[in-house]
Design goal:
This is Outer membrane protein beta-barrel domain-containing protein. By secondary structure, the chain is mainly beta. It has one helix at about 5-15, and strands spanning about 30-40, 45-55, 65-75, 80-90, 100-110, 120-130, 135-140, 145, 155-165. A hairpin with an 8-residue loop joins strand 2 and strand 3.
Length: about 180
């Protein structure tokens, strides 16, 4: 793995390990471990686990959330790839008069690697969020920064996520 690959992958990993401070769930903001589980398809299938997030939900009654998380994608193809990533997601306005359905937006920065080479991807994404952001369906477009080494990472990306960060502010003790 080249030096720049190691640096970016290491920084994304370290960002998730540090800063995990205990916060009460009733505050509606704070750090949470293992916040997101997802699956999707680009040119190949992948699974996604968010292992640390900072989430902020201003008010459950207004249907908004903002979160930033560090996680890892495992890209399943002929050659296995691991992609540490940093994600930012938000929903700011409910639609159709309800508070449980609204557009969701986000941006991912990921570093897919086979531990010899790596790519750098910037992925803007948009979709729908249901149940106050607990369920999210996104379409994303991968922009490759620099030379692309892996053909199994396509340009178009569809993902389905279960976002446990959306439960912040509830009387559930899943948040540290």
């Amino acid at each position: 793995m080249n030096t720049r690959c190691k640096l970016y992958a290491g920084l994304l990993f370290i960002a998730g390990l540090f800063g995990n401070y205990p916060v009460k769930a009733q505050h509606g903001k704070g750090f949470q471990s293992f916040n997101r589980y997802g699956a999707g398809v680009q040119k190949s299938a992948y699974i996604d686990v968010g292992w640390l997030a900072y989430s902020y939900t201003p008010s459950r009654h207004k249907g908004r959330y903002y979160d930033i998380s560090a996680g890892t994608e495992a890209i399943i193809s002929k050659y296995f790839l691991v992609a540490p990533k940093l994600s930012m997601d938000a929903a700011i306005m409910p639609v159709f008069g309800g508070k449980s359905f609204y557009p969701g937006f986000g941006m991912d920065f990921s570093v897919p690697t086979n531990f010899r080479e790596c790519d750098y991807l910037l992925t803007p994404k948009a979709g729908i969020a249901l149940a106050y952001g607990l369920l999210r369906l996104y379409y994303g477009y991968n922009f490759v920064i620099g030379k692309q080494h892996f053909t199994q990472v396509g340009a178009h990306k569809i993902s389905f996520e279960v976002n446990l960060s959306s439960l912040q502010g509830e009387k559930l003790q899943i948040v540290h």
